[in-house]
């Protein structure tokens, strides 16, 4: 019996590189899976906000409304009747939801604001409004961005007009979540928009750099926003935006939709991650950032403190101070005011215990039961070296002002009457138990003031209180390391081995961090206690980047260990000369071993998620290279045959040669025209030749392995599910038309024989609904045609033994098997091309389905032109027997596919919307080549005869 696999699959044994690629694919899949399940497996330390009273949303009519958007005023409790009667007295705050976001997501911030207003009995009032944007998928379909922006602009005008004249606001506050933050920034694109209306914009988990460019509408929108807001480098912010405060808050590593590198924007006054905000200290996912109680409280405090100023600063400068205090360096209290830390403080208070320490450089004071009387500690500075520093840790010291420097009174020569306050330099730190504040002072800065004493104050309290002081020479506690991305790969890299007690501060400076080849590598810093003299202990690790806001923390406390997670993606590029550094505040009663470890699976998962955005371009490159080989075989083979997809894959040597040449050209192009490929998501290595070669080769191998297994699965489905698919289609037609099976078979048979009808139907559907819908319908029919073609070949193979027995034993003739798979192989590659184009336009169909109850057709529709062209080509190609034999220009067609693959590599890795037009053009050229074969003519048969004479074995077997 004839072997089915020999004729239908006919695949080569995979090369060793294929096995390596398969291993890489498995490892990357495991890493991505780990990242995707990260938020489910790790504890969410955010406490959810809760409602005191039932929320209500009062609809406000907006002129020129398109019908699918709405505006609401939020109210609850005592304010309900006033809001329903459209009486507003406070500063308007407008919440703009993001991608698939609901207007109801304003509840947490609005409710906490109302509770806070009642609690502090403040005269400051805020009125919260929220915009309903129909939960549109604005992150994947840019066609709605201008519509949403125009509606929000109308909402602002409507809200201002709603206020009575005496209470008419002079400014508004915008809070945007996800893509809502981009809408808030995009309001200023319109030259008619009154920029004086907006004074503060707070963006939450907003991708200030696009996650991916699904269509040119999104690309154009981001370009317009950057044009007026600048990029922080060669494009400054427009002058009319100079007094607008912009605060950007990201969720950190738990947010798998908008990564930390995307939430950073160089034109923001404050860029902060939730895990670095004082009092929050936890990473939030994309939705949690809206209801995380500690973060919401910080935002509300910024709103109240920004609205009331008792200083001589301008409004813009005051808001910047307030936001910096709450989101960056909070020294103590929950509220900020201009006199929070007075510069000069009186120190000689009555009824205090004065404690003078003269010689000890390290001192720890632990008051388990508190103290009944205030304590003042004087630490003389006896001609210390210029390189000395002092680090102190205050535990449960609630007093705002607790550390000072002074010059002793000339009469007592020991104590000070007044001191200079350094408490504003301290910052509260993450703690598992009890409140902690840390401060590090360079003693030369103290000596410059002529001061010779450091003074610490502890107020009387019944709570357990402690004060740890460490004075040291900076060079003894600082080590410097030139960064290498492979540190901690196999074994933990030792940073510090602290084997002495009483010391609390150590620092490691990281040189060359920003030059690392792996920008998305994830590292964990572990503080392992070796020996402790007491049961309870607490240590904190900090990652400090001088030119950014916020400090990342890690904790080691008793049996609880939370390593410090650091990654290059959290650090924006800067021209600053200061290097990032690690700071460790240790428990003076413990010895520690501090180690650095590369988290391999987290790194692989991060790279897989971010660089996975380039997979569509690499899939297109691979398919085009396969088509190139198939056309090359058709041009040179005496059998006019092209092999199966898996046997037409190019050799790895040829691929790497092409990559090397293309990367050189790409590097030159990026340096000359950097805006051609703008960085999206986590892809920012296109202009770096070494990184581009490494990651491009890696992505190609992984994509190639994925496509290998995917196409094998597709072939299996066509081999074994052909009849099943036919039966499913028959049942579908029966249920749709309510006819019997015989008529359904005839209809299906008619479509198979007259596929141009399917093409015309798909064109009509595309024109009246959405282009992607027509592409998907044609894709299903294309797959049905392939299954039919494969099924016909299998039927011939199955019945061949019977025909052979009849012809050979009864007539004495050996029958031939006229079985050619060339047409199937070519159609299979074209079908893969079709699927990729559908995938690139898939966001259009999703948005069309979302808005179907509002409009039957998608407007605008980026997929319409591709759908009309491809369905027209399909209607022609499905009618023909392709590929045509012995045609000219197969070699040129092969070269065209190679050129198109190079163009995909150069221009489409960061701009996915460019993939479909290029592939559509290739499809059109192939169709024209096959359609006008009679005009093109056939190639000279002499070449085939010569090449056939050189073959040692005749080609008699089946193809």
Description:
The protein is α+β, with helices and mostly antiparallel strands and 959 residues long. It has four domains: 1-30 and 613-933, no CATH class; 55-328, Rossmann fold (3-Layer(aba) Sandwich); 344-474, Jelly Rolls (Sandwich); 477-599, Jelly Rolls (Sandwich). Helices cover 41% and strands 18% of the residues. The protein contains 28 helices and 29 strands. The strands form five sheets. Strands 1-2-4-3-5-6-7-8 form an eight-stranded mixed β-sheet, sandwiched between helices. The protein has a six-stranded mixed β-sheet with strand order 9-15-14-18-12-10, with no helix packed on it. It has a six-stranded mixed β-sheet with strand order 20-22-28-24-25-26, with no helix packed on it.
Keywords:
single chain, 959 residues, alpha+beta, Rossmann fold, Jelly Rolls, 4 domains, eight-stranded mixed β-sheet, 18% strand, globular, disordered N terminus
**Percentage beta strand:** 15-25%
Instruction: Tell me the span between the first and last alpha carbons.
Output: 17 Å
Strands side by side in the biggest sheet: 1-2-4-3-5-6-7-8
* Number of domain modules: 4
Q: Roughly what is the average pLDDT, rounded to an integer?
A: 82
Give the helix level as a range of percent: 40-55%
Any idea what the shape is? globular
Indicate the structural class: alpha+beta
- Largest beta-sheet characterization: 8 strands, mixed
Name the poorly predicted regions: 1-9, 941-959
Number of helices: 28
CA-based gyration radius: 35 Å
Extended strand count? 29
